[in-house]
Amino acid sequence: MEKISEKFNEGDSSSSDTDDEKKSSPSSLKAKVYRIFGREKPVHKVLGGGKPADVFLWRNKKISGGVLGVATAIWVLFELLEYNLLTLVCLGLILGLAGLFLWSNASTFIHKSRPHIPEVHIPEEPVLQFASALCSEINRAFGILRDIASGKDLKKFLCAIAGLWILSIVGSCCNFLTLFYIVFVLLHTVPVLYEKYEDKVDDFAEKAMIEIKKQYAVFDAKVLSKIPRGALKDKKKA
């Protein structure tokens, strides 16, 4: 009876092991799926979540279209029509003051009472939140640049130099406003397209990354490995 019970226990343990393997196998397969830039969170979480991510991913088409339309109108006014910021602000204030002045006098003449003009003020909390988020991102960028400049990783250094060089070329072709508008349009198009075709883009990115690593290995073997570094290492040891 003891031998029979041991056999049953062994059978139960083996079946539980197979069940555990079946349960763990989907998670292991999911862990092996390549995501671009090593992404582990959904696209919505990567963009920070909340209302800004909803706008960039077109969760509400009216709000996203309105934001993109306002940005396009600003770019057209300042870039194509060549308005200056001070001129546009002064013209807007002139039209606003003239309209309120005429409306107030007309209401006094018709209804014998002055209309109530609402007070306009900028809320303090959203401005402080935006300034805090901007400050943290700038400090984070400075930290990344400091880590790259410390000389720990040659690959990151070369990527940073190439990225800054490409950015300088783009900056010489267009001004800051046009560059900002292009980035704004890309933020409204690239994330939503990536979320829609996520698997195809990740598959293509995985193949491209493998090819880049092969080319970097060839470059390392032919160029970087031939750079003399023995003297520096001997000095450090001494």
TrEMBL record:
Pfam families: Reticulon. It is found in: Endoplasmic reticulum membrane. Residues 1-10 have a biased composition (Basic and acidic residues). The keyword DNA-binding does not apply. GO terms for biological process: response to bacterium. Keywords: Endoplasmic reticulum, Membrane, Transmembrane, Transmembrane helix. The chain crosses the membrane at residues 63-78, 84-104, 157-187. Residues 52-238 form the Reticulon domain. It is a multi-pass membrane protein. One of its GO terms (cellular component) is endoplasmic reticulum membrane. InterPro entries: Reticulon (IPR003388), Reticulon-like (IPR045064). Residues 1-27 are annotated as: Disordered. Its main location: endoplasmic reticulum. PANTHER family: RETICULON, RETICULON-LIKE PROTEIN. This is Reticulon-like protein.
